[in-house]
Amino acid sequence: MRTYYVYILLCSDKSFYTGITNDLERRIIEHKSVKNKDSYTSQRLPLELKWYLECSDSRDAIQYEKKIKGWSRRKKQALIDGNWDDLVKFSKNYRQYKDSRM
């Protein structure tokens, strides 16, 4: 059975990059190696792995990745921090918090 990973990287400009892979270690190395100079992460080095989730089904991993990519920065930070109360709060009150800065 293959394992898939949804992951969040913190970039040097403090932005988050969310991705999916079947080999997390290899993918992080690829991000850091700057194979594609036009990629989002190659222009924001150094990178730091902040969070990941293991999935046994690629469809689940893709679904999680798409969901997380649509989240606000504040909500992603709550996920990274394991702050479930804020994760729920920012889900319910998006309009209230959407213009707030961290």
Total individual domains: 2
Side by side, the strands of the main sheet go 2-1-3
What best-fitting shape do the alpha-carbon axes yield? Answer: globular
Mean pLDDT: 90
At CATH level 2, the architecture of the largest domain is 3-Layer(aba) Sandwich
- The number of strands is 3
Give the SSE order as H and E letters: EEHEHHHH
CATH class of the largest domain: Alpha Beta
Sheet of most strands: 3 strands, antiparallel
Which structural class do you get from the secondary structure elements?
alpha+beta
Report the C-alpha radius of gyration, rounded.
Answer: 14 Å
Give the helix tally.
5
**CATH fold category name of the largest domain:** GIY-YIG endonuclease
Strand content: 15-25%
Low-confidence region ranges: none
What level of helicity do the residues show?
Answer: 40-55%
Distance between the termini: 40 Å
Let me know the CATH homologous superfamily of the largest domain. Answer: GIY-YIG endonuclease
Any descriptors?
3 strands; three-stranded antiparallel β-sheet; 102 residues; alpha+beta; GIY-YIG endonuclease
Secondary-structure map:
Blueprint: E1 4-10, E2 16-21, H1 24-33, E3 48-55, H2 58-69, H3 73-81, H4 84-92, H5 94-97
Helix pairs in contact: 3-4
